Amino acid sequence: MGFEWMAEPAAWMGLATLIVLELVLGIDNLVFIAILADKLPPHQRDKARVIGLSLALAMRLGLLAGIAWLVTLTRPLFSVGPFEFAGRDLILLAGGLFLLFKATVELHERLEGSRHDQGKRLVYAGFGAVIAQIVVLDAVFSLDAVITAVGMVEHLEVMMIAVVVAMIVMILASKPLTRFVSAHPTLIILCLALLLMIGFTLVAEGLGFHIPKGYLYAAIGFAILIETFNQIALANRQRAERHRPLRERTADAVLRLLGARVEYEEAVADGPALSRADVHDQGDPLEAAFQPAERTMIRGVLNLAERQVTAIMTPRVDVHWIDLADPPEQIRRELVETPYSRIVVVRDGNSDDPLGVIQKKDLLSGLIAGQALDIEAQVRKPPVLPEFATVLAALERFKREPMQMAFVVDEFGSFTGLVTATDVMEAIAGEMPDEHEPVTAMMQRADDGSWAIDGRTDLDELVGRLGLELPGEPDYHTAAGLALEALGRIPEIGDEARVGEWLFRVEAMDGNRIDRLRAAPLQDGAAA
After folding, report:
1. Which of 374, 391, 422 is the last residue of a domain?
2. Residue 485 maps to which CATH number?
């Protein structure tokens, strides 16, 4: 073996070009080996990749050593009609058909899948069977690569060096490439589709139809470019998903396992209201196994440790109380007129620090016993929760306290609202009407697709029903809070604000408080 070629610049240029071309020609071989090796047990995959690529190297070097025999493969052996077949054509034809068959079977398995029963071991492919398939494909790809090398350069040494260098690079790249391909199912589908195209090309070559390699590589390059964009978009979605609270992501994952991503559904006579996520998943056969109320309760339970009591409490402005400084006649009238069984008691209008709570049944028991009405003696002090306490913390407190009610205070100790065990139950099971209030839903859907929304509607219910996507972690908990955040000021009746794909309009105010809203879907930038 002479080395005179080393003094020729053209030989070095040919070597560099041939190495690049051999790498390009070897990618399809490497991808197929990666897919086959993935069928083996994890501890055998590296071994299969190395053996497969080593056999490919040995085949290519052997074919280069027998160049004289290789030339005979291009001589016609027989003809069928207008088609003449040489040994190379038969090898390419057989390899192309095998590649078409194998890629089709792999696609079918990955698209259709097979049910794996729990408790049974996962069955892997046999090591010998996988190596045998690798050998068959190595023969086809090696023949194509060697014929390309013979047509490009004149020196046998240059061909062998290019093949060895390219194969060493492929062996080093095989493990990270296989790991990357296995971690991205869509990439595996793309690779199998490319193998189908390569198999079709080999069959065409075997039948005598020459397909310029540039067309093939341009198609492969374009497909890889599109898949690169797809992987970038997927990575961005996953990065955005990681910013969502862990418990919320867990809730979504559990709901997907249960068969649907329905967060909330209308439980009134006008029928169910489906969000965009519902439409996406309503064909799921598991959805029928779980009622909408069950899915709502699952989400509510999983969110108990994330939601603050301020999201479910009765705010101070809606709390009904009596003042011990008022005349006895006025106090009696208020006790008779109030529909509540438990009433907050204050003195001298000091609503920042209530005395406690009285229960009508306690007053009634004293009156029946012939005692004088003594409200202050019946005042009971409920437990106190800070406003940053979670709903789960409130539930734990109610489990230890006989009074199923708690005052909520801010960081300065001022009274901001009260929460009851019923509020906790509503956080799990959904809104339940009070016996003294008319039975009206917090959200009602109109025939035109718009929603009439009570300003006190819980933010989670609003987001679930309308399919809203809110940036970050909002520091408000109701529909009124959402409208205030969007408007940036105390609104007036008729004010409008766009939130996502919905247009919110203020329909009623109670002083500075938003009492009722109307949400209409946007179409082409205008309200429907």
Report:
1. 422
2. 3.30.465.10
List all residues 6 or more positions away from 426 whose beta carbon is below 8 Å from its beta carbon: 312, 432
What residue numbers bound the domain in which 283 lies?
A: 246-303
Here the tokens at position 435 are 């016996």
Separation of CA 259 from chain center: 14
Rounded to 5°, the CA angle 10-16-18 comes to 95
- Per DSSP, helices labelled H in 402-511 are 421-429, 459-466, 479-487
Rounded to whole angstroms, how far apart are CA atoms 252 and 249?
5
Query: How many CA atoms lie within 13 Å of 477's alpha carbon, on the beta-carbon side?
Result: 15
Q: Which residues pair with 321 in a beta bridge?
A: 344
Q: Between these two residues, 441 and 266, which has the higher pLDDT value?
A: 441
**Residues, the chain, total?**
528
Contact criterion met (CB below 8 Å) for 516 and 508: yes
210 and 72 share one domain: yes
Rounded to the nearest 10 degrees, what angle do helices 156-183 and 42-65 cross at? 160
* DSSP state at residue 500: T
- Give the integer Cα–Cα distance in Å for 5 and 110: 49
Write the CA distances from 203 to 94, 134, 146, 420, integer angstroms. 8, 19, 18, 75
Where residue 324 sits, what CATH number does that domain have?
3.10.580.10
Q: What is the pTM of this model?
A: 0.43
- Nearest CA among 315, 340, 477 for reference residue 408: 315
Cβ atoms of 162 and 18 closer than 8 Å: yes
Q: Tokens 């979670």 map to which residue?
A: 390
The pLDDT value recorded for residue 415 is 94
Q: Count of domains in the chain?
A: 4
Q: What is the pLDDT of residues 240-277, one digit of tens each?
A: 766 666 656 666 666 666 554 444 333 333 344 444 34
Spell out the residues 6+ positions from residue 527 whose beta carbon is closer than 8 angstroms to its own.
Answer: 503, 520, 521
In 3-state terms, what secondary structure has residue 76?
Answer: strand
Instruction: Summarize pLDDT for 443-486 with one digit per residue, the tens.
Output: 888 888 899 998 888 887 788 788 887 776 777 888 898 999 88
Burial class of 397 by CB neighbour count within 10 A (0 to 12, 13 to 18, 19+): buried
For residues 425-443, one letter each, b for 16 or more C-beta atoms within 10 angstroms of the residue's C-beta and e for the rest, the string is: eebbebbeeeeeeeeebbb
pLDDT at position 148, please?
A: 57
Is there a domain that residue 250 lies in? yes
Rg for the chain (alpha carbons), in Å?
37
CA separation for the pair 427, 71 (Å, rounded)? 80
Burial code of 90-127, b = ≥16 C-beta within 10 A, e = fewer? Answer: ebbbbbbebbbebbeebbeeeeeeeeeeeeeeeeebee
What is d(CA 225, CA 227) in angstroms, rounded to the nearest whole number? 5
Query: Do both 255 and 284 map to the same domain?
Result: yes
CA 306 from centre of chain: 20
